[in-house]
Amino acid sequence: MTLSYRQPGVVLTDRRFTVPLDHDTPDGETIELYAREAVASDKADADLPWLVYLQGGPGFGANRFIGKQAWLGRALEEYRVLLLDQRGTGASTPANRQTLPLRGGPREQADYLTRFRADSIVRDCEAIRARLTGGAPWTVLGQSFGGFCTVNYLSTAPEGLRAAVITGGLPSLDAHADDVYRAAYPRIERKVAAHYTRYPQDVERARRIAEYLLRHEPVLNGGYRLTAEAFQSLGILLGGGEGSHRLHFLLENAFVRTARGLALSDSFQEEVQALLSYAGHPLYALVHEAIYGQDGRPTAWSAERVRAEFPQFDAAKALAGEDPVLFTGESVHPWMFDTDPALRPLRETAHLLAERTDWTPLYDPARLAANEVPVAAAIYHDDMYVDTAHALETARSIRGLRTWVTDEFEHDGVRAGGPRVLDRLLALTRDEV
Q1: pLDDT class for 418, splitting at 50, 70, 90?
Q2: Which domains are seen in the chain, by residue range?
Q3: Model-level pTM greater than 0.90?
Q4: Helical axes 201-216 vs 243-251, angle rounded to 10°
Q5: Domain AB hydrolase-1 spans what residues (predicted)?
Q6: Which of 68, 121, 162, 432 has its Cα between 20 and 30 A from that of 333?
Q7: Smallest Cα–Cα separation from 428: which of 411, 405, 403?
Q8: pLDDT digits (tens, 9 = 90+) for 266-319
């Protein structure tokens, strides 16, 4: 049974779909997918083309918009929109520390999670499209990892696409995870330098906090063990348009004077725990590096190994001298499965995924070179999360793809830019600009 309800200017309908866990064995085990259909109130009964939204991540459910927030209002001018919770996320069949033990031990869990990459997500989309549109192609909007999924869509099932719009999500077609992170750390360092230029007082604040953490390693109220490395990973904020300001306001009230001396304030601890915990999106940590696996090499905790090539990110070394403590960015490390209580039970599963060597290619360069689907992509200049050089190289490899390279936005431009980003990209797919 489908349930419809209203928000300001929008009619929403909850939809659930049953799909195979493994699309190569359609009569085998199934999982459930949840999606929220959105249509403008004054077009609720109209025959509209569909747009499916693929969220970034991996591991995040689709946005829970209220009314016509962000890009949704622009999309609802002409589309019926499907906000899909990709497998394992949101209200779809969950994959987390509570549910994964139902699969068996760590090896069975790791085997299960190999089916949560872009290729399976695209096949889910095709199964849904066949039921929802009567077989008509639809438009896809892919944000970040959703863009990776979109490039897989163009590689494997372009007949399902009327058009494709990608925001901050053009992956390298052949880079190993090591290549991705070797490009990432210098980019992250530039973002940190820009933050310290904007807020020079944060240099000393970050040093004081890191020094405190190296001495005490406190356990936060929710059970998260806050190490200096974990503190540095708050730099993931710097990839968003408001991230530098959010980080600054977080650092300014880190300490409070107590009867035993200076301690981390409760408010700081609560906000840090909320930012660092993977309780709401454990798949991000589990399969993040697996989204780059495409050959016989294991990912083998790439971000951790490559970080050792950039000693300036070592907090202890920075504190031994006068260098600033550098924050890090969008990367997953083995120590996260010790510090985060939501990930600790999945530690061995994560190690097994990092050791796998049977990853299959996600993209088809030959098919992309012959692409006939109208495609447009926003590439954010010096995007902290997706390397600009990799994105531009891929853009040149997809026949007919039109790019909009801009430094007006950070990685979250499709949200922060309201209707403007989507409007521009749709116009590009139609040769209107």
Answers
A1: confident
A2: 3-173+363-429 (3.40.50.1820), 177-355 (no CATH)
A3: yes
A4: 60
A5: 49-234
A6: 121
A7: 403
A8: 999 999 999 999 999 999 999 999 999 999 899 999 999 999 999 999 999 999
